[in-house]
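User: Just a sanity check before I run the rest of the batch. Below are the structure tokens for the first item. I only need the designed sequence back.
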């Protein structure tokens, strides 16, 4: 077989792969997920070979673009903002002099933002970035063939910077992208970025995977980004990063840039995290992330030498939460976690990311080094225990906390608010302090932690309730001695109510 026939055969195999890997219909996604996303086995990955001739270099990405571009849409987000006609309305001091009679006179203004999205369900399920839609209350999507439809927000998740929309067009079927198995991806693989940069219209750029598992990029709490040099610019957010088989590798989310343009350093959220969020959205709209119940730190060269390693690797466990998944699995403080489910990890964010792509109740395999010996531990993941943001308690009556909303600290609440669950194991967190309330006038702030009231240690909501009742029984002129933790510092004060 001559080279031209070989190239034609390869092109045919690529096109066939695109058709075979279409995403299932939304109805097929509706069954509650009981296991991790199922990906094709690694043995089915494409054979990687560098170009060897001029003929190889003249091959085109057009077949891949034809299959994938119709599933990438423009997402328009809009919100109606009311503004006062008085130019000093936002300044309380000047407003009392210059805005008399004008404070009720307002004008409406529609603010719009533009991003991209990817259709991953035939009934119009779209995944995009949370920051594309978070400021909007009305959404509209435009397909590559210029059809326009209204859309509704199904779920948004700020911690992963992902959101799911659904096109409001019952009965219609839309082109979709299937998910790639990013666990088999390698640095140097060819990828295409598809989106709407600067609002100029759908644009395709090409590049390679520049790096994997980038966890030191502070755009989300569950970071393990795919880095690419494919040109990504403002407006590409929420668009698709696809491989040469037309599968969704990731959702483009951000760039590193000083001037606002692409410098060849773009980042995409891996498909395994995207699929986890989409599955949660189409199966009830609730995303429950399991946790490990362990805290760790990266290993540098000096720590590696002390541990007898030939190179820095793994995550050194520094804290174990009592009764958590790690403790039940037998993980101990000082253990070195080298991999989870066969994937190397290098910092705590990497551990959290892998766990976040799983479902509660799943079991993962940890490769651990302890006292110079390697062993394997099986860990069953579980949701973090305790109260959540939905269980806020409003405090009423005549006391220093009146008007404030508080919550009992727990790993669940700490994870939800992005706090350290090991630092905030117990106590009452001040979540919200309305302006004008007694709590606000006395200087209580959101984020404060109530540690003691009149010498009584506050660990639970019941402790706080009993302390308030006891102090109030002393009369209207009771003196309250408070101990509050603020930004890691303990503040002790006395107030009279």
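Assistant: Here's the designed sequence for the first item:
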């Amino acid at each position: 077989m001559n080279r031209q026939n070989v190239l034609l055969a390869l092109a045919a195999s690529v096109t066939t792969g695109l058709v075979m890997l279409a995403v299932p219909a939304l109805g097929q996604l509706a069954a509650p997920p009981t296991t991790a996303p199922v990906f094709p086995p690694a043995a089915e990955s494409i054979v990687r070979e560098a170009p060897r001739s001029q003929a190889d270099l003249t091959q085109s990405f057009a077949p891949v673009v034809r299959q994938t571009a119709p599933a990438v849409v423009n997402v328009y987000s809009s919100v109606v903002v009311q503004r006062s006609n008085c130019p000093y309305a936002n300044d309380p001091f000047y407003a009392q002099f210059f805005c008399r009679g004008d404070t009720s006179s307002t004008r409406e203004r529609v603010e719009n933002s533009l991003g991209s999205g990817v259709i991953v369900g035939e009934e119009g399920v779209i995944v995009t970035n949370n920051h594309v839609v978070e400021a909007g209350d009305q959404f509209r999507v435009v397909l590559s063939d210029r059809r326009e439809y209204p859309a509704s927000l199904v779920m948004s998740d700020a911690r992963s910077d992902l959101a799911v929309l659904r096109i409001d067009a019952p009965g219609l079927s839309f082109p979709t992208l299937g998910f790639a198995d990013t666990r088999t991806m390698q640095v140097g693989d060819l990828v295409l970025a598809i989106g709407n940069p600067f609002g100029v219209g759908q644009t395709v750029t090409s590049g390679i995977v520049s790096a994997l598992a980038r966890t030191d990029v502070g755009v989300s709490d569950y970071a393990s980004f795919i880095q690419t040099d494919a040109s990504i610019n403002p407006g590409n957010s929420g668009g698709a990063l696809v491989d040469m088989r037309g599968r969704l590798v990731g959702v483009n989310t951000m760039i590193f840039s000083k001037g606002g343009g692409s410098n060849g350093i773009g980042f995409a959220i891996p498909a395994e995290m995207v699929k986890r969020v989409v599955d949660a959205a189409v199966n009830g709209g609730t995303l429950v992330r399991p946790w490990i119940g362990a805290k760790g730190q990266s290993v540098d060269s000096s720590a590696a030498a002390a541990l007898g390693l030939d190179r820095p690797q793994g995550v050194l466990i520094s804290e174990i939460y009592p009764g958590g998944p790690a403790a039940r699995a037998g993980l101990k403080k000082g253990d070195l976690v080298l991999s989870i489910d066969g994937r190397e990890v290098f910092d705590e964010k990497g551990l959290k990311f892998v766990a976040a792509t799983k479902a509660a109740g799943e079991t993962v395999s940890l490769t651990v080094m302890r006292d110079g010996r390697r062993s394997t531990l099986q860990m069953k993941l579980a949701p973090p225990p305790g109260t959540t943001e939905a269980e806020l308690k409003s405090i009423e009556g005549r006391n220093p906390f009146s008007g404030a909303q508080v919550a009992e600290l727990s790993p669940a609440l700490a994870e939800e608010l992005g706090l350290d669950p090991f630092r905030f194991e117990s106590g009452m967190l001040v979540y919200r302090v309305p302006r004008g309330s007694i709590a606000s006038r006395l200087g209580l702030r959101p984020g404060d932690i109530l540690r003691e009231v009149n010498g009584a240690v506050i660990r639970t909501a019941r402790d706080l309730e009993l302390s308030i009742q006891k102090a109030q029984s002393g009369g209207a002129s009771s003196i309250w001695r408070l101990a509050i933790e603020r930004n890691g510092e303990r503040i002790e004060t006395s107030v009279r109510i």
